[in-house]
Structures are given as C-alpha cells and as structure tokens.
C-alpha cells in the first residue's frame, strides 16, 4: 500500500500536490493548521482514502506528537510512503537589524526544524518496518543566493538543501532504498507571492521585480508545478540528495 503525506496541504502547492496524488489513487494524509474541504470532497468522490491532521508546524512539540500518530497509522500497512515537506513561511521580510525575533524563530521552526524532525522520524520508522520512504523537501532558489530582506528565508532554505544532500549521502552509503531529495518549484501564483508583493522597498529591494512577475503573467500555476513534483517522486529512479529544479522537469 502507498501513502502520501503532504504538509501545508490547505492551499498553494501543497493542495495541488495532494490533489495530484488523489488523482492517481494514492491515499493522502494532509497536514496543516486548517483543512482544505475541497480536497476531502475530491477524495471521497474518487473513492481514495484521505485524512487530515491539524498541526502548527511552528511548534516542535506538535510536530513530534502529530507525526508520531501519523506514523502509527501509515506504517501498519505501507510499502511506499511519499513525504512532501512543503509547508513554508517567507516572513520576516526585512533587513538584518530590523528583524522581528518571534518571526525569526517561527521561520526557522517551520522551514528547517520541522522538515528535519519529520524526515528523521519517517526514516527511523522505515528502517524499523522495512517500508520504503521517499522524502521531498520543498526548497527555493533563495537557498542558493543572497536576496536583500530575505536573510532568514535564504538561510533556512540553504540549510534544508544541505540537510537533504547530507541525508541523501548517508542513505547511499548505507545501501538504503530510501530517498531524500529537494524540489525547487520556482515562482508560483500563491499566497506567498502576495506577501512578497506587499513588502516595502525599504525591507525588500526587489519588490518591484516580483510585482512585475504577476503583472506579466510569469507566475506558474501551483497545479502545473505539482504535476511535475508528483511525477518526479513517483519516478523509477531518483538521485539521493539531489536538488531537482522544476525548470528542468517541465
């Protein structure tokens, strides 16, 4: 049996990825603070198993508790488990010296700590049960270059990339069938882009560039990107630790 676990599945890329898994008949477990009722209805209509877990990924305690419960559900029957660590936050958007401390902590927990904790738990359970796990950490081009005003977002995505590369190396060295990869989705028409466009020029020097992306129709739809993502994780061959870019998949 197969399962797909998608964080941040209430909207954007997460919702589209969950929808794509459902369309392929793969049971979905969505994880987010609020539930996407349309996903539930789609799954019911398609006769595909769907479960929602409410979780605030900025709470390490909730992450450990909720995902321990998910593992109990999944690893009783699973042969293949697809984990999409998609949830992410862009804030704080501001220059160093003006950063909100609470937003810094939340960003690090959601963007970095949560994917690491989730990956660690699923790899542990896979080793115990013999199930195969494929973990995809959604990253960003911001993890590979400096962007004024995005110091925390750039830093957490860079760290996610290095965790992915290192965990992938470890799995290869151990001869494991499990995989950890990263996926860079490019610029999409999501709520995160709305937040970016609402930034001040003082906080984010490139804000006009991102406003132009919207005005010029340069933003891809989450459905298009999700199609490439799900096709990737279901492929027969994946390179452990690799950062896959959507531009090379479409």
UniProtKB/TrEMBL annotation:
GO terms for molecular function: sepiapterin reductase (NADP+) activity. The keyword Cytoplasm applies. Its EC number is 1.1.1.320. PROSITE patterns: ADH_SHORT (PS00061). One of its GO terms (cellular component) is cytoplasm. One of its GO terms (biological process) is tetrahydrobiopterin biosynthetic process. It holds the Pfam family adh_short. Gene3D superfamilies: NAD(P)-binding Rossmann-like Domain (3.40.50.720). It is found in: Cytoplasm. Belongs to the short-chain dehydrogenases/reductases (SDR) family. This is (S)-benzoin forming benzil reductase. It comes from Mesobacillus selenatarsenatis.
């Amino acid at each position: 049996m197969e399962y797909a676990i998608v964080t941040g599945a209430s909207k954007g890329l997460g919702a589209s990825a969950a929808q794509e898994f459902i369309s392929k008949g793969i049971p979905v477990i969505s994880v987010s603070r609020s539930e996407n009722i349309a996903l539930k209805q789609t799954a019911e209509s398609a006769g595909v198993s769907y479960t929602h877990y409410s979780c605030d990924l900025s709470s390490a305690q909730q992450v450990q508790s909720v995902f321990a419960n998910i593992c109990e559900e999944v690893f009783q029957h699973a042969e293949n488990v697809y984990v999409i660590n998609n949830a992410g936050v862009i804030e704080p958007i501001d220059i160093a010296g003006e950063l909100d401390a609470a937003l810094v902590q939340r960003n690090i927990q959601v963007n970095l700590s949560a994917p690491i904790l989730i990956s660690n738990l699923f790899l542990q359970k896979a080793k115990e049960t013999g199930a195969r796990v494929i973990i995809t950490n959604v990253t960003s081009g911001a993890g590979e270059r400096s962007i004024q005003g995005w110091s925390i977002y750039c830093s957490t995505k860079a760290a996610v990339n290095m965790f992915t590369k290192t965990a992938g190396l470890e799995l290869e060295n151990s001869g494991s069938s499990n995989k950890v990869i990263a996926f860079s989705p490019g610029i999409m028409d999501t709520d995160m882009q709305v937040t970016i466009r609402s930034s001040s020029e003082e906080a984010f020097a490139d804000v006009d560039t991102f406003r132009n992306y919207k005005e010029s129709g340069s933003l891809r739809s989450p459905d298009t990107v999700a199609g490439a993502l799900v096709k990737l994780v279901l492929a027969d061959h994946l390179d452990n630790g690799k950062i896959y870019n959507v531009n090379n998949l479409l």
